[in-house]
Amino acid sequence: MMVFEELKKIINEIMDIPMNEIELGSHLYDEMDADSLDMSQIVLALENKYSIEIDDEVFEEFDTVGNIVEYVEKLAA
Amino acid sequence: MNKRVVITGLGAITPIGNNVEEFWKSCKDGICGIDHIKSFDPSNFKVKVAAEIKNLNETDHFKRKISRRLDRYSKLGIIAAREAYRDSGLNDENVDKSRMGIMVGTGVGGMNTILEEHENFLNGGSNMISPLLVPKFIPNILSGNLAIEFGINGMVNTVITACAASANAIGDAYRIIKHGYMDVVMAGGSESCINPLMMGGFTNLNALSLSNDPKRASIPFDKEREGFVMGEGAGMLIMENLDHAISRGAHIYGEVVGYGTTCDAHHLTAPEKSGKEIIRSMELALIDGNISPEQIDYINAHGTSTPYNDKIETHSIKEVFKENSSNIPISSTKSMIGHLLGGAGAVEVIASIKGMEEGCIHPTVGHEVYDEECDLDYVKNESRKKYMDYVMCNSFGFGGHNTVLILKKFNG
Prior knowledge:
By secondary structure, chain A is an all-alpha fold. Chain A contains four helices and no strands. Chain A is globular and about 25 Å long. The model of chain A has no long low-confidence stretch (mean pLDDT 94). Chain B is an alpha/beta fold. Helices cover 33% and strands 18% of the residues of chain B. Chain B contains 13 helices and 14 strands. The radius of gyration of chain B is 20 Å and the shape is globular. In chain B, 57% of the residues are buried. Chain A binds chain B through residues 14-16, 37-38, 40-41, 44, 47-48, and chain B through 63-65, 68-69, 124, 127-128, 130-132, 135.
């Protein structure tokens, strides 16, 4: 759950969405209106936070907050 | 067939007023917006004063997500554009957005963002550089932001001619409408670069006033002038062809009737001493408008407060207007708002249009010491009532750009 909490902070900072409205099932594009600039910032913030390297092509296929959490947890493990 | 081009909307954010009404009232009252620098600590800098915007809470204008994506120069441009668009009465129904364009000028674009991200890079390496760096700083991004905000799909361009940029933008918009390429153009310019890098660069170029007295720093045509004062701000106009404006019942502030632009092709920063290309830019604008020099009622000067500009501009005016030159009132808006670089021309056009509308010439403030080489009527320190039909606006820029616009009172 640590990654989820961190991701909520990042999304709040970048997209100005209240943390209590962000759920694992939240859809990045349909519900949260994310665009490529939001996603680039989120990727970079996660890479810097966890010292990981995220594959852009994999990341582009994510639809939900939960997809990101799952992927980052695996990489950071 | 050429179209007549009129101005139907005004927007401004300046060091002496955050909208057109406040700005113009301050102009008439001769308020000087120059003060000691607050944007950064200037203790270790030779330059001490600037003309900064006051009482601007950016969060009143932009949501946080959008605000992160905008350099301050874009924010100022958008604030001015919103006012101009609202003022014009344009909406999605009364203008074809595919026939509407944008033409805005800037000197340096999003320089604040470059500085912030360079600091992030030095502190943390390349992975600390925000993905927003490029879309925030590129000098055409104000145009892009305005196009998105207002849904404008026509000719959307950016003009970069240093301190003449927004005058060129207005001139180019005038031609685009005059020759029928667009019906309506949002035109103007924006600048915000009161930051350590730019202030240091301009200081070391010996371009800035190093005065510690805000009231004796930007003193155009005064013998003791020693450089310009950096200002920040934006000015935007809605320009459209006369038939389009009449068909939608728009208020018409005035008409753009002349545009002349030349280049010294001489020196990177210094004006050519004979002023021959400045003279030619004024003559071209007069010819373009089919106007004789005697018809010009007022000149809004470039008037930067640098030793060379004010002397050469004065000389050039004398060459064009001959024996009548001492009868034409001349004033410098920069005496109150400093030099807005790429935003200067547009804000000065707004001061000129408002002046024509009200029959009032704003003063050149801070003028104390007579200079025998600057011996024309500079409307010193107090505004003056005068009916005006034609006004000339001068803007010159590093790179040798000389740009002259002529505005006309709208008489139907």
